[in-house]
Amino acid sequence: MKYVDAEIANLKKEILKLHEIAKKAVELCFRAIRDKSIVKEISRLEEMSDELEARIHDSCSQFIIRFHPMAKDMRFAVGMMRISSAYERIVDLAQEISLYECNLRDTILSAEKPLLAMFDVVKRGFDHQADLRNEMIALDDAVDEIYIKVLEEIEKDFRCVEEVLAARHIERIGDLLCKIATRLIYIHSGKWTWIK
Amino acid sequence: MNAIEIDDLRVKYSNVEVLKGINLEIPERGCFAIMGPSGCGKSTLLKAINRLLELNPDVKISGDIRLFGESVFRMDVTKVRREIGMVFQFPNPFPHMSIYDNVAYAARCNKIVKNKKELDELVEWALKKAALYDEVKDRLRKKASQLSGGQMQRLCIARALALKPKVLLMDEPTANLDPIASGKIEELIHELKRDYTVVIVTHSPAQAARVADFVAFIYMGKVVEVGDVSEVFERPKHELTEKYVTGRIG
């Protein structure tokens, strides 16, 4: 079924675009904390992600209507809708972080590295080239540790509410990336494997 | 309880083995779909269940098929056909008979009613059960050949139901119908499966997914996978099933 495979390849291309937008937004939100000129760029990414998410949902609906997919194809179509929503939410969270005026502490900023690494693992997961579960658990644990550490630091040295919110958003981005990985495992194997 | 149990069923046409050791358990009530590509043996399996294959002298059958625990090969063949109704791919009402007589004929032959009143009631009941009564109640004495393809197929279902079967076999019942008529038959299957064991043969995974509770995938005379319909269509265990339901073999 070459035409079905071609549709799947197109959908995958679109979702990978959204993946790159989300990754860029997360990367930039850490820089925006120190340089507010970047906020505009993140807003642009947020608009792009909204449009792309809507387009992916529409393409998936069309795919289901036209091809009545089953098994792996069906898991893919439904999974892409869920995954695109997760990416869109990540961009929203990144945008919120970028808008905070408070000068966030370094511990929060240290989450950038594991989060970006999670994006790379997920991307390889689209092509089954990653041990998604184990790699994601390790990285998400690192993000969670940072989150806990930030809360402990805030308890001793409270600066602003925005720090609590930023820490929460960062932890949430990690969770959303784990959810994407869980979906990818399900699409590929048909088995639910909980990462968190 | 299982309505039908099939043990190591082998069917040979001349020297060609068409069914190669089929084992299946079909639960009572609900719809059980048998799907597979053309020539895989699914229609042969259906015909074996109500012993239609025996009409062909070149056919050799081994193994066993039990209907509610009783081997169909040890049952009187008339009883087998009465308890297992069959609907074919091409609607085949008796064209020279009226709509009424098409339904009444087998009931009369099998003496399952005592008088005209009971027969009238049975015909009305069967036509209602087949979701056809409202469309034909004013022309019951008209010839069946005047009906549309979809109506003819529902008439055949009514004819089968009039014998009060326990099991209804359907061999690609919508293969020659337009989408509207097909939709009505599928809706009817949803109604019938509450009271009967419906076994449907289809080459359409989409149709199997719409109407069935359980599905068996047959390939080259063997059962590849059997299971709950949502499992088989969402998470097939066997690679061949995956390829078939996604249209990558056929």
Protein described:
Chain B: Residues 4-245 form the ABC transporter domain. Chain B: This is Phosphate ABC transporter ATP-binding protein. Chain B: It comes from Geoglobus ahangari. The complex is a heterodimer of chains A (196) and B (250). With 196 residues, chain A is mostly helical. In chain A, 82% of the residues lie in helices and 0% in strands. Chain A has a single domain, classed as Methane Monooxygenase Hydroxylase, Chain G, domain 1. In chain A, helix 1 (2-32) packs antiparallel against helix 5, helix 5 runs antiparallel to helix 6 and helix 6 runs antiparallel to helix 7. Chain A is globular, with a radius of gyration of 18 Å. The model of chain A has no long low-confidence stretch (mean pLDDT 94). With 250 residues, chain B is α/β, with parallel strands linked by helices. Chain B has one domain: Rossmann fold. Chain B is built from ten helices and ten strands. A six-stranded mixed beta sheet of chain B has the order 6-7-8-3-9-10, with helices on both faces. Chain B has a four-stranded antiparallel beta sheet with strand order 2-1-4-5, covered by helices on one side. In chain B, a hairpin with a 2-residue loop joins strand 9 and strand 10 (222-228). The two termini of chain B are 33 Å apart. The mean pLDDT of chain B is 94. Chains A and B meet through helix 3 of A and helix 8 and helix 10 of B.
